[in-house]
Amino acid sequence: MAAAHEKLVVPLESVSLASLPEVGGKNASLGELLRNLAATGVRCVGGFATTVAAYRAFLAANALEPEIGALIERYLSGKLTLASTGRQIRARVLRARLPDELSRAITAAYRELRTGRSGVPEVAVRSSATAEDLPDASFAGQQETFLNVRGAAALLDACRRCFASLYTDRAISYRENHGIDQIKVALSVGVQPMVRSDRAAAGVMFSIDTETGFPGVVVINASFGLGETIVQGSVDPDEYRVFKPLLAAGVRPVIERKRGGKERKLVYGHGRATTRLVQTRAAERAAFVLSDDEILTLARWAVQIETHYGKPMDMEWAKDGRSGELFIVQARPETVQARRRSAELKTYSLEHKGKQLLSGAAVGAAVATGSVCRLSSAAAIDRFATGSILVTEITDPDWVPVMKRAAAIVTDHGGRTSHAAIVSRELGLPAIVGTGNATRILRDGQRVTVSCAEGDIGAVYDGIAEYKVENLDLSAVPKTLTHVLLNLANPDAALRWWQLPADGVGLARIEFVVTHDIKVHPLALLRPKALSRGERMKIRALTSGWASGEEFFVAQLASGVARIAAAQHPRPVIVRFSDFKTNEYARLIGGAGFEPREENPMLGWRGASRYYSDDYRDGFALECAALKRVREEMGFRNVIVMIPFCRTPDEADRVLETLAANGLERGRNGLEVWVMCEIPSNVILADEFAARFDGFSIGSNDLTQLTLGVDRDSARLKTLFDEQNPAVTKLIREVIGKAHEHGRKVSLCGQAPSDRPEFVEFLVGAGIDSVSVTPDSFLRVKRNVAAAERDLAKRALRPPVRRTAARAARR
Description:
Blueprint (H helix, E strand, L loop, with lengths): L1 H7 E3 L8 H17 L11 E3 L1 H10 L2 H13 L5 H14 L4 H14 L8 E8 L15 E6 L1 H14 L3 H9 L9 E7 L7 E6 L10 E8 L3 H5 L5 E6 L10 E5 L5 E7 L2 E7 L2 H5 L5 H18 L3 E7 L6 E8 L10 E8 L4 E8 L3 E8 L14 E4 L7 H4 L4 E4 L7 H9 L3 E3 L4 H4 L5 E5 L5 E6 L3 E8 L9 E6 L2 H4 L10 E5 L1 H8 L3 H5 L6 H11 L5 H20 L4 E4 L5 H5 L21 H4 L5 H17 L5 E5 L5 H13 L11 E5 L2 H5 L1 H5 L4 E5 H9 L17 H16 L3 E5 L2 H4 L1 H10 L3 E4 L4 H18 L4 H11 L1
Parallel strand pairs: 16-17, 17-18, 18-19, 23-24, 23-30, 24-25, 25-26, 26-27, 27-28, 28-29, 29-30
Antiparallel strand pairs: 1-2, 2-5, 3-4, 3-5, 6-7, 6-12, 7-8, 8-9, 10-11, 12-13, 14-22, 15-19, 15-21, 16-20, 20-21
C-alpha cells in the first residue's frame, strides 16, 4: 500500500524540475527550490503533491476521460460553445468521487503535516498542470488555488475542485491558443502549510524589469494580507526596485520605493468562506509594507533563484505575521521579456496630444488610440467591439478572450504584477493599471489615446493624438572615439533606454524629480511654521509615511538619481545640482515665501550662487544628502556631480567648501566634480576653473545666449540665436583646448548636435571628448559623429591613433 501511496502522493522535497511530467510545472519548481536552494538560506515552504498518476486514477475510477474527450471533440468541431463545454466537464468532475486509495493517501500526507503543530493545520491547495510555466506561456491564473483550507474533508473537496479547474473556460481557450492537447494535459495538486501572511503581507517579484526587460533590477510588489489580491489586481500594491549588481557589494541599492494605495487586504474567513476581503486601516495605507532589510533579503533570494535556474524568474513570496519570517511560495520562469529580441527597440513619440484625463502604472511602452468600451464584468464581453480600449475595474483570466481583441487596456485597480498587466505584456498591448477612477472618468464611445511611452507612469489623453513609431536596430551602431552620452531627466523613463549603447549620461537634471516626485520647495520642508495652513496640509499628505519632510526629500531625490545611475551603471552619470530660477522655485508647494521676485530670473539667483547662500544653504544640504546617499549607501560610485551657472573661481571655491561640509569632498571615494561651461567667464578663466573641477560640460544654450546677448526664449530674436555663430564656436574651441592642457575632459549637452550634423563635425574637429543628447536622437548623432571622425581621418586633420593616445593619457 505504501508503494501505491508514493505513486499517488509525493513530498514536494522529493521532486525537481525533471518531475514536471509527474507533478506539473508549479510543483516541480517548488521541489526544485526546496532541494537546491533551501540550504543556501532561501526560505521555502514544503508540503506534498498529488501526482499525475493520481489524476489519471481519478478519471479512470469515474470513467471521465471518454466523456471529456467527447465534449472536447464537439467543441472543436463547433457543435458546442466554449462555455457549455467547460460547464459540462466541470460538473462531471465535481460530481465524481475520489478513489478510496487516493483519499487515504492525501489524508495520510495531510496528517503528517500536523506533526509538531497544534490543532488542524490550514493549508494552501494549488493546481499544477503539466502544460504550464513553459518558455512561451505563463498560464497565469488558469487553474484554481484555495487558501486557508482546514481539515481532511475540506482538503479532499479542494483537490476535486482543482481537478475541475483544469477545464475552466479560460484554461481550455488558453491551451487551444497555444496548441496544447486538451486530453493529454493533466493536473497535480500541491498542498502546503499556510504562511500566515493574512496577519502580515505577501506579494510577487521578478528578477527582471517587467516593462523594459532591464536585467539589472529585482522588482517587488507588496501588499498587506494574502497575496491573491496582487495577482488578481484588486489592490494597488507598493512597488520596490533593487539594483542587482551591487547587492553583493555591502551596500543597500534599493533604488525605488513607490507606495501603493493598498485599500483592501485578503484575510482568513470563517466557515465555508475561507477568505474575506476587508478594508485596510489608514495607518496601513500610509505605511510601506516592507522594510529595507526585508526588501534586500527578497532581492538576494531572487538573484539566487535566477542564478540557479539560469533565466529571469517570476516569484511569489509571503511574510508570516506570527514569526516575521519571509518565504518563497512559488517560482516560475518569466515568459515575456525573455522572448524579446535584444537588438530591437521600438520607440513611440506622441505629438499634438489632448488633455490628460487620468494616469496609472504603465505596462508596455506603446501607444494606442480608439474608442472606450467600459465593461463591468466579463459576462458583457459580447458588446465589445474589436480594436476598442477596454476599460474596467479589474480583470481575471475570464477576461482573456476580450483582452485579445482590445487595442489597449485601462483598469481602476492593480499593479504591474496584476492579471491585467501580465496578460497585456503577453499580448503585446499597452495597458494602464491602478488608475483609481478610469471607470468613472471615461465614458463609452469616447475617443482617447492611451500612452505608455512616457515612462513608468502611463496616461490617457482626450482625443486621438498623432504619434510616431520608430524601430531602432541596435545591431549595427558604429563605434566612435568621441563618446555619445544621454541627457536624462525622468527616472521613470531611464530604464527604457538601457539597451542603447551609450557611453553614460552626460546630463541628469534633478529638477524633474523635484517637480514631479517631490513637488515641495526644500525650505518649506525644513521650515513648516513659515507656511500657510493649506500648504502644510498639502505637504502632510505628500510626506505621509515618511519619518520627516527632510527624509521624504532626500529619499525621493536619491531614488530618482539612483534609477538613472542604475540604467547606465557602471558607465559615468553626470548629475547636475538644481538650476531652478527663482520664479520656478516659487511655483513649488510652499516656495513663494522663500523666493525673491526678480525682473530677470535667467540672470538672477540661480545655480552656484544659491548653494553657499545663507538663504538657501539648508536646502542645498538636502540635495547633497541625497547624492551622498546614492554614492555611499547605495553604492553608485559612477555618479559624478556637476555645478551649474558658476560665475567666478571665488564662487567655485565657496561651493566646493559647501560640498565638502556636506560630505561630498572632491576626490574622496573617487568623487569627481564637474562645472557647467555656460558663461563666457568660464572660458576666459578656464585655466582657473580647470584647477578646481574635473571636467567641463558646455551648456550651449546659455553660452550662446550670454555670448550673443540674445534671450534664448525670445521668438522675436530666434533668428539671431545660433550656436554656430563664430563668436560661440570660438569660445567652445578655446575651452576645449584649455581644458585638455590641464588634463580635463569636456562634454557638450544641448540640442544642436541632434539637429545639425555640421555642428557635430565642428565639435569632433575641435576635439570634444563627448556630446550628450536626448535618447531619441542618440543613433542619429552617433552616426553623425562616426561620419565626422571618418571624414577627419581621411583628411588627416587629426590622426585617430594620435588622438586615442592623447585621450588615454588624459584619462
